Amino acid sequence: MPVSALIKLENLRMLAEVGSIHTATIVGQRGGYAVVARVGLQERTLATKYGRVRLFSSADAAAKVLREAGLGQATLDFTHYEPGRLRAARPDTTARFQRAAEALEHDAWFRDQVQQSLDTVRDGRAVWHDHDALFDRLEAHAAQRVTERGAGRTLKVAKPSSPKAR
């Protein structure tokens, strides 16, 4: 299609606003749809800002652009439509988006857990344990378990230093 037969979206909008667009057709092509507008006696194909034919992945997407440009009616010609993709698939992009979504989900979960902990402290529901007393109870429990198993040997666990001593 020659470059002179292309029309940019902003020009299409202006021509539609003044009533110079007689008809518009959404034309099926390989992998997508193009928009052709009749301006006077000429047909103009909607172009990208880089001067190439603008293709849409669906007729709905093309119709939406026409409606936003001020055109209320268009015909659909899918005679030469061939299913396919306008662009190659990007599995790397899909994987990157999936990792980002998982990271956001984990971040939301983590923030929720922190908020719940802060709420229990603020409400006075938090139970505080002395480090040394808790470790003494753990040692006693471990020694009792060893005795119950009948191992006949004692378990000596090294007691870590208290966080207060650090």
Structure, explained:
The protein is of the alpha/beta class. The protein has two domains: 3-77; 89-149. Helix content is 43%, strand content 17%. The chain is built from four helices and five strands; from the N terminus they run βαβββαβαα. The protein has a five-stranded mixed β-sheet with strand order 1-4-3-2-5. The protein is rod-shaped. The mean pLDDT is 86.
Low-confidence stretches: none
Q: How many beta strands in the DSSP annotation?
A: 5
Series of secondary-structure elements, N-terminal to C-terminal: EHEEEHEHH
Rg over C-alpha atoms, rounded to the nearest angstrom: 35 Å
Query: Major sheet: size, sense and barrel closure?
Result: 5 strands, mixed
- Portion of residues in beta strands equals 15-25%
What percent of residues adopt helix (DSSP H or I)?
40-55%
User: Could you say which overall geometry the principal axes of the C-alpha atoms support?
Assistant: rod-shaped
Q: Could you give the order of strands across the largest sheet?
A: 1-4-3-2-5
Oligomer: single chain
Individual helix count: 4
The residue-averaged pLDDT reads 86
Distance from first to last alpha carbon:
78 Å
Count of folded domains:
2
SSE-based structural type: alpha/beta
